[in-house]
Fold these 2 entries.
Entry 1:
Amino acid sequence: ALPRSFFSSSRSGRNGRRTAAELDARKTADRGARAMVKLGQPGGDAPTAPKEDAAFGAFAALERERTFASANDPIRSVLQHSKSHPRMLESNATSHVWPLGALAELLDNAQDQECGATEVHVDVVNVAPGVPAITVQDDGVGMARANLHCMLSFGFSSKEHVVGNVGRFGIGFKSGSMRLANDALILTRREGQASVALLSTTFLNAIDADDILIPMFTWKVDESGGSGRRSYIADEPSNTTEWEENMAVIEEYTFLKSEAAVLEELDKIDTKTGTRIVLFNLKQPSEFDFEHDQSDIRMRGIEDDVETARMSSRRPVYQQHRPGQQMTLDVPEDYSLRAYIEVLYLRPTVTFTLRGEKIVPRSAIERLAVEYYQFDAYTPKGVPEERASPIIVHCGYAEVKSKHCGFHIYNKNRLIRMYQRYGSQLQANAMMKDMLGVVEADCLEPTHNKQAFNTTDIAYTKCQRHIEQCMNDYYFGVQKIRLAGLGSGNKRRHPAKQKAAKNNAKKKSASKKERSQRATSFGSDDDTDEEPWEENDDPKGGLNAKRNTTARAKARVDPFPRLLRKLMRNKNSWAFNEPVDAEYWGVPDYYERISTPMDFGTIATQLDNGDYRTEGSAHGPLKFVTDVRQVFYNAWTYNQPGHQVYGFAQDLARIFETDLAKIVGENDEWGLLVGNTMSMAGPAPEPERRKSAPDGGGGGGGGG
């Protein structure tokens, strides 16, 4: 191996003094110094030191003066070289908190258009018995020696603002690979040339280096021989001694113990050109589970002890934090690499294979199969010209009901945020809790780890405001399958839908008499003059009584949707807007004690399906009223007086019974007021009574 004194750089001469023995050691090692490539000087081998300073080699102290290749600039001949300490690799890797996000950095390089890849294979191999390593291999055009050196250097990126490329900072490979492993071996082959380089913190720490050194080899590839066999001819370093000294590093600090083994690993690139990356000496303790699913790479649980680990119904929970999301919600993309890659790119350009099995992409847009709607493109003002591009918002619902909601936000085809919630999705209610969306936002600026956005950027603020506006327009004006759109007429519809509705209204030729008859019938489509809610027995009689009755009847058209919507919008309704999650709330005996579970969300679904609509019959209204009261009775049965949920049920029961009494009036011919829950609800709290005193009523106002 190379002499340790050579790699120790200037540590022994902190005061600028070097002993004769140290100088002799450095003179002896100078041959190998010229053979090693220094990270941070792309475009070939490191420049050769001046002859008068040869004793200190290519890795002398920072105070040494260097003569650069571009000596035509007189200033550069006296500039100092700024080193990158090996600790830079570790500190740079800390930007990745989530290991799967670090692994995705390696996939991004293959996805970029200059790579030219059509297939990417991710696999797990054993470099020694019981010692796993992760490999990423593509069939792209490969890299020349200079390109490989740039990839291993910091900040050398030509991808910024290139259409279709997500890379920008030139640190993705270094931060991602060093987050997962201590060592990374890169093998690449292009037409006529093949190169191998080692980025190893194990090697750098062992020699106590104060600069980042990279052993790198290049061969000329001759494929003119018969039977398709390739021959490799050593090219760089050209000096045999230098080649052997570099190879000694590979043999000592990797799992390849000879040049023949290196070439055998290089031949595992089974296409004419391509790149293979091997991450070995994975970080310990291991964060990955390679055994649970042989076709996947999964995250381990937070704790190995199953009894004390935080569990969902199927597995230990390992979940990224997202505002508004339940901590027990199962999000496969958080712990399964296969599930994550399926949605990683909005429109994949390559085919991914994980551990020998092809990955079938799941289009985030195609998932919005129910009530899908795409909003017009919006380009925020004040964005730099190089990032000026439109924001496109897609909204909809999934065919299979789940507790997932929020938006997948893509930047340059790459997923940055998953299930990001906005607006009402962050509040304790049931509104928009199953709405899904996709945002294409190429104008936003991702953070270094590509897992978040720069929230201080004006473009992000405008994008967030635009998304929330689209959510409201969609929920209250576009979609028709949720309760929000019922009973609101055209007032809250999306402008495009509102215009279409107005045009359709002009084409209708129903007479005033027919419209009046429909308005006076509740829950019925028949054209009769009956008023099932109230008879014309006003003691004042005459024309005024008829006018008052008609006005009240029109005001009572379909009151149930408005009444239910008022309950669900109440700040205390969050506990009743969806079925009780017994596991999440820690009440495993809930469904044993409650034989007839009911919630406002289920009632809203039944209302959407027309289950409470009957013709000239009390069955539908009675069923609606009974179901709402069942919600309150369940809360009072399971919880004790004084409990928060018990009090919430009392508050909502007072609102419901008060508004129902106003709707029904004095003539309750269908018996909707029978079984009134006001006795259980009790009197309104003192502040509530004072607030409602001018109206002379209890808590709660009129019907929606």
Entry 2:
Amino acid sequence: MSKSTGSSSDYLISLVWLGAVVYGLGIFLSNAYAIRLQAIEEFGTVIHEFDPYFNWRATQYLYENGAKKFFTWFDHKVWYPLGRPVGSTIYPGMQFTAVYLKNYVFGDSMSLNDICCYIPVWFGVLATIIVGFIAYEASLPVNTGGSIFGVLLSALCGQYADDKSMASSGSASRIFGLSSPAVESAVFAMGFMAVVPAHLMRSVGGGYDNESVAVTAMTLTFYLWMRSLRSQDQYGYLFGFLAGVAYFYMVAAWGGYIFVLNLIGAHAASLVLLGRFSTRVYLSYTLFYVVGTSLAIQVPVVGWAPLKSLEQLAPCAVFFGYQILQYCEIVRKKKKMSRKEAWKFRIQVAVVSLMIAALLIVAITPKTYFGPISSRVRGLFVPHTKTGNPLVDSVAEHQAASNQAYWQYLHILCYLAPVGLAMVLFRFGDSASFLVVYSLTAYFFSHKMVRLVLLTAPIASALGGIAVGRFVAWSVSSLIGENDGNADLTTEKKNDDVKQTKSNGKSKKKKEKKSTSSKDSFAGVTAICGGFAEASKSTEGKIIKTVTAIVMLGSLYMQGNAFKDYSWQLSASLSNPSIMLKGQLRDGTVIKVDDYREAYWWLRDNTPDNARVMAWWDYGYQITGIANRTTIADGNTWNHEHIALLGKALTGSVEEGYSIARH
């Protein structure tokens, strides 16, 4: 075959590959939109559950009165006769988003209620796309050239692998510079995130709750953080600035921002332990922390908590640790210190810094500068503590997660995600390592509280996408006869060894001996992989590869369809709003029971404006949101004694209940 014919054939294959990618994206994104739209198509633009009605009422107030009055709003219609300062106790990101869309995007073409109902759908699709970007970033050749074992060994030997040696040569470059299997991983990650029940439970149409927006903000922050660590990008650290801005939106949207902050801080600390600290990593984290924290303290409900709350001080400690490390690196390079001298200098600086920090802590602790760890966070580490609020502890979604819960909300990803995690460990890099930290942390916290299974949706989808994407890329390459470097472990290993040998030739003899011993420790693995690679080039080997590829593709297709069908079935139950019910008559006719809203409308139309409604706290948000009447308690559950008195009035004798109510 001539060179021109081969080039034409490769170009045609790339075009077909690109068409398949675009088709897959279309299918998965349309699924992401349609599955979340079930509730709206079935019940109309109705806000679901209880908490979303508080969010809806707050959005109404913001739209009608503006931001200035919103932040000083004291609501006298709740927690009678106490009231609640809403403006300073709410995470307002979602409300501002809805009002912005109403004022500047849709105008009179869409009502504020309809926008609030559609926001979970729109942001669910955005989160699906961003998870694909996360998987893509974690699969790029420039980010996947090492392995966890090699990185650990280099760290123990005091060596730092540069960007070129950490880049993988085992990926195919397709059309428009797109990389395989990174693109396949991204597409299938989107496919999983599009329908995974762990995300659907907080992103169906009408579910106007903070998490529906916050998950999108969280995944965007994670992607931009990973992007800032991309190797061989001179100005990639600037994405750390954007990660800080995205983190600000996350802070404004949900109290779960503490998880995001600590996770990125933990990853930054792990990069130091893995010997991956560099100027790029330093600039990325510094920009993220400075920008993110500076903006976060502008949110009224947060205030100075990032610099005072014990549960947020660990990332602050990492930030100051980074400044110390960077100072030591500057001095080391300037004075051309040896490894021994550099470590001695680092220890001296660290001791002095710790002494200064200890003095500061001793000086400001008696002044009650530091805030305590919140009861919710404390309950995640001390089981018997729970949240400290028996009402909150009694809620089913605040109980520990079981194996059945993981299977219910993640399904096949329970098996695919660990496979993807193993692949990341053997295709390791600064950006990819974030997925390892994320997966371990998300599993730990979700195991403590089933509600936090939501946090596992993005990471499980990304890891599952990486696993399936690499399987599919290898299978397709085997079927069309390409020499898939990504699947050929030996070729990649040999290329890495050649690079390592060249770099060793330029280093000192001492480092050369350490590098040689490092390679020798993996010589057995390399030999085994080499044997498999040679065997696969034979006729029998090609037949086996082809059969394996066909079986693998068929199996993945069937399992994928089963996962999609399961997710659609579960989505039907997740899409039922608690405020409306479906019933069936004797003749089989399906009807919608709208008694709750009709009762609230009756209260609105037949009671005085200043009427107070005594009901259990669950219904408080709906009474104020729909009937616009004053309530005794609601889902904020901030006053235990108030709720206890309400419960006594509702469950005691008529005389006692009447006396409490009159009081």
